[in-house]
Amino acid sequence: MATTSNTGDRKPAAPSDQKAATTRGQKAAATRKRNAARNSATATKANARRTVASTKTTAGKASSATAAESKVRITQAQQIAERAVLVPVGASLLVRDNVVSTVKGLTTRYRSRASVERELKRYERRGATARNRFERQVRRTRTKFERELRQRRNSVEKTVKQNRGRLEREVRSVRKDLEKQSETITSRVEKLVSDASDRLSV
Fold this sequence. Notes:
mainly alpha
């Protein structure tokens, strides 16, 4: 089977075919540009949507965190207000319960006159014991103070006596020295006077 070569059979393209090819190329290029512009616009819109969504998510998280903090603060304020109300009420109720129990105890304890007298005597003995203890402590403190005062006074008097005796001894010794020196000076002066008179008489 004979094969025919296409190279020899190909004819040069006509000018109308060249124009059609150029027009098709330009259309394809324009189509590619439009597609590229459309794709870029689509990508920009998608990016914008993502940004808005992330912004909304961040704002939602921030608002939820703020809401949680405000709820915590409101809860704390409620607890503080409840505590401020409940503490005085509870304290007054405890005081009332203590008073009621004390009164009940007194009424059950002091039903008869003898029990009242016995309780009064017990209180009296306790008061007398406390008074005696206090008086003993006062006497003990006063005795201790007087003893320390006597010791200090004796030590001061002893020190004064010692200093006075030392001063008197020093004064006596100085006076004796002065007397000795004056006697020596007097004898010397008398000797000088006698010698001078002897020389004048000769």
